[in-house]
Specification:
The complex is a heterodimer of chains A (about 300) and B (about 450).
Chain A: E1 7-9, H1 13-37, H2 42-51, H3 55-83, H4 85-94, H5 98-112, H6 126-150, H7 152-192, H8 202-205, E2 207-209, H9 210-216, H10 218-231, H11 237-242, H12 251-256, H13 263-283, H14 292-302
Antiparallel strand pairs in A: 1-2
Chain B: H1 7-14, H2 17-23, H3 32-36, H4 48-57, H5 71-75, H6 81-84, E1 86-87, E2 90-91, H7 95-99, H8 116-124, H9 128-136, H10 138-144, H11 153-157, H12 173-183, H13 208-214, H14 223-227, H15 244-251, H16 258-264, H17 268-274, H18 283-287, H19 300-315, H20 318-324, H21 330-336, H22 338-345, H23 353-357, H24 377-382, H25 402-405, H26 407-448
Antiparallel strand pairs in B: 1-2
Helix pairs in contact in B: 8-9, 9-10, 21-22
Classes of the chains: A mainly alpha (about 300), B mainly alpha (about 450).
Chain lengths: ~300, ~450
């Protein structure tokens, strides 16, 4: 049952699409933004060589399109958090808790102090929560100041040139902060991090390997396995999927597909099948009888 | 025979080219009676004199060819302004007026009245005013030093075919320019242009002025319009038409750039020029000297960037700023502003210096006629931002001292710099340590295997 080939659902297709829209609009915004601020930079010259002399004229338009894409994605994300069961669960799991503080403290002791005990992270560690809320903060700040700068002629009479200068300064420094945070914080954990190197494929494939679960989210893995053992066997798999915990990559399920297509395709099909199940399942009450000690926690998990 | 009484004339005649030829046995050479008649002796001051000369000198058999001295050459005189304008009964200037009468000499003779260097005296008999001016000019001075290259009257006005400068095809403004540039083709203008490049005198040929002449606009200026024809002065001379003080006036002559001159009058630059400040710019400091180019350049972006460079030359120069108490950091702050960034990036519509400050009428913001005076800002900004109906300015535009001019921006910048260094620094440390720990436990795990 516990196999190295087990795969655990980290991001549904919907979430991956959201993430992809966010990352592509973000990258475009970073490029087209710093392009304005550093017009003589070497990489700007390359863009000009590639696109042509009039590249700069397209820059502001592309920046605005990407900005709208990011805001629309963000609004969709809020709707997703508010109205889908999995979204609500995601939001609850992302909320900072008192336990994050002690987890952070333990991590500091482990990384910089004498403690040899590595903190056991759950679904979202303080690292990921910082990342998530930094994105929320950044999107609000950049969206608001960017909106003012976009409609400068309208806002000018209310906030004066001083207000414009302030909005410009915030937009610029927040951009540097956000870009560096993504580069140093996010890219490290997704790419350089020895546990996932060369890349954590969760944002493409949607799942984590058992190895990654053991190293990065041992607490979460434990919760999933407790639930499994209490509810018993594969019956509980679907509810686990509903709660966003696991893809049971079981051979029996795969053979049902009666296809010899390449493995990736199988996985995709499999995921979509599970998604169908999720939809059916979410109408019912998914919470199964679970061990009393875990009941409180799992109520959250399964809503 | 005549010389018995007219001994002076006889002496003069004996030195003349006519007498030389006569002694050599030339049978067609004129003696006294050929010009004065025999019995009906005529006073020399009579229009007949030219006819007497032309009797022989228009004969193609006696003077063949088309060279100087030939009949064809002499014939040109008949259509010249000297022949066509009458003074009393006579031509305004006849043969003898220039060539002399009895002592007539070949122009090659150094003492001849038509020798290059002596022409100014000969012409000056009638044209005293212009010759006086010409003598003071560099051309005149060099000519009197017997500099063979210096131009004399006939180089520009012609010889027998002499005409009013405006009537002659041979001295149209285009031809004049070419004539001047023929000698001045390698000359450089003594001061560099706004880009710091040396400018050739022949740069005139690339100018809008020369182009306008080619297009048939006869009012467009050629060399003499700015430098003066006979005065032909250098800008160094404070009385010249192109000295710093006078050039605006010269360019602003009513038919030419009167409107621009009116705008320039009263501007801070004009005030400086009038006060005698050598740093203050006048027409040519911005527009160039000989190579004046059209402002309607095709490459608008290049034009915009050039203009910024032009203003920055003075307003970005520490020396200039200190000497003239100019506002500091205006060009740096512009280049970091959105307008400046967009121009640097390649947006040709973005505002440059003149979009806000105007060009000929640049005035300080305290001047109510200034484009950047508080009352005029809505219109100035509105040129590009039609939606900006109310312009609310609560701090300086060029934020030269952030802390003083815009404390909000200053403290926000401070806050972010600390935040960025603190937070990103922490992230870096955290991740370096995370990496080391994970690597270590990985190698340990591998070793166990």
């Amino acid at each position: 049952m516990k196999s190295d080939n087990d795969k655990y659902l980290r991001m549904t297709l919907n979430e991956r699409v959201q993430h992809f829209l966010l990352l592509s609009s973000f990258i475009i915004l970073v490029i087209t933004g710093f392009w304005l601020k550093y017009p003589e930079a070497w990489w700007v010259r390359w863009i000009t060589v590639l696109i042509g002399e009039n590249a700069f004229n397209a820059r502001s338009l592309i920046h605005r399109i990407a900005a709208v894409a990011m805001v629309v994605t963000s609004v969709y994300h809020i709707i997703y958090l508010a109205f889908s069961p999995r979204g609500r669960k995601l939001f609850m799991d992302f909320l900072p808790k008192r336990s994050d503080l002690s987890e952070f403290g333990n991590s500091m002791k482990y990384l910089f102090g004498n403690s040899a005990e590595k903190p056991r992270f759950g679904r979202f560690s303080y690292i990921e929560k910082m990342e998530y809320w930094a994105v929320v903060w950044g999107t609000v700040i950049m969206g608001a100041t960017g909106f003012i700068l976009w409609f400068k002629d309208y806002f000018f009479k209310y906030i004066s040139n001083t207000g414009m200068e302030i909005a410009t300064a915030i937009h610029f420094y927040e951009a540097i902060l956000a870009s560096l945070a993504i580069l140093v914080w996010h890219f490290y954990f997704v790419f350089l991090n020895p546990d996932v190197y060369p890349v954590n494929k969760a944002w493409v494939k949607g799942y984590l390997t058992r190895h990654q679960m053991e190293h990065e989210h041992p607490q979460w893995l434990e919760e999933i396995e407790n639930k499994e053992s209490v509810a018993g066997g594969s019956e509980n798999k679907v509810s686990d999927v509903a709660s966003g915990n696991i893809i049971p990559e079981k051979k029996e399920v795969l053979t049902d597909l009666k296809t010899e297509a390449d493995e990736n395709k199988k996985k995709e099909l499999h995921i979509s099948e599970i998604k169908k199940n999720v939809k059916n399942e979410t109408d019912e009450k998914p919470v199964k009888e679970i061990n009393d000690d875990e009941a409180d926690k799992n109520k959250e998990d399964n809503v | 025979m005549c010389g018995k009484c007219h001994s002076d004339s006889k002496m003069n005649f004996k030195g003349s080219v006519h007498h030389t030829v006569f002694k050599g046995g030339g049978k067609n050479t004129p003696v006294c009676t050929d010009c004065h008649g025999v019995h009906t002796t005529i006073s020399s001051k009579h229009s007949i004199q030219s006819e007497a000369c032309l009797k022989c000198h228009l004969d193609e058999k006696m003077f063949p060819g088309t060279e100087t001295g030939s009949a064809k050459f002499v014939e040109q005189y008949k259509t010249s302004i000297h022949a066509s304008i009458k003074k009393g009964d006579m031509e305004s200037a006849g043969c003898t007026d220039c060539h002399g009468d009895h002592m007539i000499d070949s122009p090659d003779d150094p003492t001849s009245s038509t020798k290059r260097a002596r022409l100014i005296e000969t012409c000056g008999k009638c044209h005293a005013d212009v010759v006086a001016k010409f003598k003071k000019s560099k051309h005149g001075v060099e000519l009197m030093k017997n500099n063979e290259k210096a131009p004399t009257c006939s180089d520009c006005h012609g010889e027998h075919n002499i005409k009013s400068a405006l009537l002659s095809d041979g001295s149209s403004k285009l031809v004049m320019a070419d004539k001047c540039l023929d000698c001045h083709k390698d000359g450089k203008i003594p001061h560099k242009n706004f880009k710091g490049e040396e400018e050739l005198i022949t740069g005139y040929k690339n100018s809008v002025h020369y182009q306008a002449l080619i297009d048939g606009n006869e009012t467009a200026p050629t060399c003499s319009d700015c430098h003066g024809a006979h005065e032909m002065e250098l800008a160094e001379n404070p009385d010249s038409k192109i000295s710093k003080k006078n050039i605006a006036n010269t360019c602003g002559q009513s038919e030419c750039h009167g409107k621009q001159y009116t705008n320039f009058e009263g501007s801070i630059h004009e005030k400086g020029v009038t006060a005698g400040n050598p740093d203050a710019p006048t027409c040519n400091n911005c527009h160039g000297n000989h190579g004046i180019v059209s402002k309607d350049l095709e490459n608008k972006l290049q034009k915009s960037r050039d203009l910024i460079q032009l203003c920055t030359n003075c307003h970005g120069s520490v020396e200039m700023i200190e000497r003239n108490e100019l506002p500091t950091k205006v060009s740096e702050t512009y280049k970091e502003s959105f307008h400046g960034l967009a121009t640097r990036g390649g947006l040709k519509e973005a505002a440059n210096c003149e979009s806000c400050h105007g060009y000929h009428n640049v005035r300080p913001s305290s001047d109510s006629m200034s484009t950047i005076h508080k009352n005029n800002l809505p219109q100035t900004c509105g040129n590009c931002h039609p939606g900006a109906t109310e312009i609310l300015i609560t701090s300086k535009i060029h934020l030269t001292d952030l802390k003083e001019d815009s404390p909000w921006v200053f403290w926000i910048t401070r806050f972010y710099v600390i935040l960025i260094f603190g937070l990103i620094g922490f992230m870096l440390l955290h991740n370096i340590q995370d990496y080391r720990k994970k690597k270590k436990s990985k190698t340990e795990a591998d070793n166990e295997k």
